[in-house]
Structure prediction request, 263 residues.
Amino acid sequence: MKTFVEDTSIVRKIWGTTDITLFIFAGASAEFALNKEVDWLYFTGKLPGDPIGRLFSTVKYAQYILFKAEKEAIASIEKINVIHQHIETARGSKISNEGYQDVLYMLIYYSITAFELLQRTLTNEEKDDIVNAFSRIGHYMHIHDIPADYREWKKTYEHQLTCSLRNSDFTKDLFQQYKKHLGTFRYFLLLDIQRMLVSRQVNDLLRLGRPRIVQLMIPFYRMIRKCQWHKQLILMMVPSQFKAQVKAMDQNNTPGLPGITTV
Prediction:
């Protein structure tokens, strides 16, 4: 059975590995808070009301698309399209093509940086593979003008970083929600992980500064990853109500979704 992403693709390794996937969303949560169209996520109130729950929900959708049979994956993307259309109708305006691009490009960028931080440097072919996989998702989401290879994507992404980001009241509120739902210690770890992953533009806008403790721990963490001891450490870093979702994230063949939810 043909899957949406080939079994040999580096994308499956990245998104089938729990800590890498969590680092992807740690980084993306910083950049996403700066996006000029983040107000769309406040329309339903679900993101600020439960930002950690929304993260795990998004992970589940992404894994479902990346690991399932092609027909099932495309059907899931089409359901997401319908949900977005309903939100646009309720609000009376459309999410821009650039807004969709921005989110897709974040997933590409942090897939690369998170994997390279925790594991190894990617080859140019592997980076092309990542861009291609998310370009296919973008195609079925009717997102236009998405580059098909890493070199072109990098140029486009760097341009959009200068045009699509701003530190707004939504940014400040979203980070306050992160802190509220994570607690002080986990929030400190989130910020430190973000310092290692985000681009210079994102760091400057958020005034994150230089990495602190986590950067010093990464070499040791890479060592214990080989022995699987890191899995218990990951569970300690996650609020208790989400431990079951974390345990399920290592499964490449994610079970069927109970129902697509909205942003």
In short: Residues 10-245 form one domain. The chain is about 70% helix and 0% strand. Residues 252-263 have pLDDT under 50 and may be disordered. The CA atoms of residues 92 and 180 lie 31 Å apart.
